[in-house]
Amino acid sequence: xxxxxxxxxxxxxxxxxxxxxxxxxxxxxxxxxxxxxxxxxxxxxxxxxxxxxxxxxxxxxxxxxxxxxxxxxxxxxxxxxxxxxxxxxxxxxxxxxxxxxxxxxxxxxxxxxxxxxxxxxxxxxxxxxxxxxxxxxxxxxxxxxxxxxxxxxxxxxxxxxxxxxxxxxxxxxxxxxxxxxxxxxxxxxxxxxxxxxxxxxxxxxxxxxxxxxxxxxxxxxxxxxxxxxxxxxxxxxxxxxxxxxxxxxxxxxxxxxxxxxxxxxxxxxxxxxxxxxxxxxxxxxxxxxxxxxxxxxxxxxxxxxxxxxxxxxxxxxxxxxxxxxxxxxxxxxxxxxxxxxxxxxxxxxxxxxxxxxxxxxxxxxxxxxxxxxxxxxxxxxxxxxxxxxxxxxxxxxxxxxxxxxxxxxxxxxxxxxxxxxxxxxxxxxxxxxxxxxxxxxxxxxxxxxxxxxxxxxxxxxxxxxxxxxxxxxxxxxxxxxxxxxxxxxxxxxxxxxxxxxxxxxxxxxxxxxxxxxxxxxxxxxxxxxxxxxxxxxxxxxxxxxxxxxxxxxxxxxxxxxxxxxxxxxxxxxxxxxxxxxxxxxxxxxxxxxxxxxxxxxxxxxxxxxxxxxxxxxxxxxxxxxxxxxxxxxxxxxxxxxxxxxxxxxxxxxxxxxxxxxxxxxxxxxxxxxxxxxxxxxxxxxxxxxxxxxxxxxxxxxxxxxxxxxxxxxxxxxxxxxxxxxxxxxxxxxxxxxxxxxxxxxxxxxxxxxxxxxxxxxxxxxxxxxxxxxxxxxxxxxxxxxxxxxxxxxxxxxxxxxxxxxxxxxxxxxxxxxxxxxxxxxxxxxxxxxxxxxxxxxxxxxxxxxxxxxxxxxxxxxxxxxxxxxxxxxxxxxxxxxxxxxxxxxxxxxxxxxxxxxxxxxxxxxxxxxxxxxxxxxxxxxxxxxxxxxxxxxxxxxxxxxxxxxxxxxxxxxxxxxxxxxx
Length: 966
Prior knowledge:
Oligomer: single chain
Largest sheet: 8 strands, mixed
């Protein structure tokens, strides 16, 4: 990358803040931003680029550090660069006879379309506009440029609401009977200019600034300010773009597309940004300026029509587009203007593209020899893989909706996918409703950058105006949100919060469905389906390359066979977490679970009173000594006989106890149900490891809620008409009260539950291994891994291991079949990581439960934190990110590293993975790769995401440059 330079004036040396286009290059994106680096590279390549210069991103950061003041020397360098541009163009800034007009545009390192500000036609005033009219012999053009400048400068620099200008403009159009902007004659445009200047005077108390240098200074400051504007900050937060990159400012000679029918402006992509097809794709407007296209003010024509209107310029543009794509080896987003038949290139940058396009383009470019497979893997963002699996509409559903007359309108299919939600007409309202859990579709005449917060929370967006390169289309594609734009039959009434189409009206809060793949808008909620990965051939090819590169295994969290089958179809190599408590919540077995819970405390009390656990423990120890002891067999035999007698007597008494009988009856009925559960899961994952976590949550979670029982009991007592139900409710209420805890997530759960009520774990282990035995007899290979949760003390694990190991050996002995199983534990409380070397003496695998680990390390209750203060922490930058979404490397990560190092010191081949929600987060996956874990486990739908993210993590480790596949 180019080094930051200095400039010398006399004896003083100052930092170089300003670069003329010919001084920059493509590799200076950090300093010049994407737009500035693109203009510099095109200038160096000899392409037709209007002269200009770039004020660096460092100047922006210095501006903020100096309390929103230009850094020393920046303004002077700006004036020096402006004088060079005057020499290059033969025009003078502020000269009424031959005025130089410029655009002032933002341009950060990373593309943020529409999020920051642009001012066009800067340098116009009452004198220079007359000079422009004389030079061009086109008074209408000159005053059209002037009214645009005042409107843009007033809105962006002076911060006057744009609606004031829009309303005045539309009022004058109505007065003169103009349908289109282009219908306004010079005299009408003079009236518009006068009205706009009056609006500025009314809003600011000062006349519109006429000094071109003052205009330039204010516009540069406004672009710097826009870097920290709400929409830009929201956009960066959404995309996790750092806030300290800063924006560059590009000052460039104006060329005009609004000089008549031989002029125009356009935005194009070297490939289709929605489908990825290898075709020039974009839009063009005759007699217009660039903002008309991207703002959606007028609906443009497809770029191919330019070949009919301006054939010579179109042919030249095609050649330049091909050349730029080959130079950058990526799809380019191009802005251009044709002024009186001459083509000018204004911008080239890497194009925003839909998920489908990103994958197709990456794969196609490998086959074309433009990039390597490794580069292709790095061109697709993991989030885009997730977007490819967005909901879609079945053809039968669409046909039925069409027959029923539910198609409201059709627009341009700007961003694929289906959004179902309540129509909302205001971005603030969308944000409010979305935060209450309501799905919303944002409906706007056209979106503007200030709508970004509404777009972020909406399921999708519908606009009445705008084209495929409008703000709504570009931003929605980048976010992976469905978008239908330019639905011109939709008449939107923002005051009434409704829209109408051919006599039918949709009010705010009514459900609509938009299909960004076809461009259709439907009334009501249509059912959607998720695509099968096998249908996505390009994605499958890309992921096959990822599988060859990544070192981390990718497993899935799945509780049922259907989840496991889906996970496997997405490429999962195992199950990293099966939560057995979810099985207990099923309607057919919940009564049995509740019967078991109600009887368990009394059954456990009776068992403790009989000393049965102590007798069994002593018997296990004696048997172990008998196996180890060579001499004195008679003494061991005597001891064994006595202990066996004590155990038998205690068991006989226990089995006669009513509470125990009720408890055991529930367990006996649950056993075959659980066996069937595990049979289906293990069969679905035949040949793959399946980690099954024994029951973990507090038992009260399986009972009715305390407050609901209390209300019902009170009502039953008052009515007095159902004593049988009252007795049942009071029994449940007593049980719930007995199980209530001040802090249940740190109370009786996990292995503690297993030690207090070991029979539950014993039943589960028996069910797992009996299912594995049955499958082995059927010729199905299984690898169950049994996980004991919440272990924080080696003695907890030792006792559980002894109890459950005995069950496992008994199942194998009864069946005469051996099973390839493992016992392991979840590392989810800090102490477990610190004693991982001890735990690894017995545990054959570790699984980091990062959700609970994050709670215990931060001292957060997740639900309370996210509901009460975590949002504020993120907004105020107290925390850089949500630690429940992305692993905290300094705290949680440090503890994980301790656990890995100490565990593998004891057991070098120790299998270690992660099974919290972090297993599907790309940044967390990269951390797990660096930590040397064996696998990550995530939800089935995020398996493809994790496969790509794991490959990208492996590629990030490679230092040497990759060779292209030719």
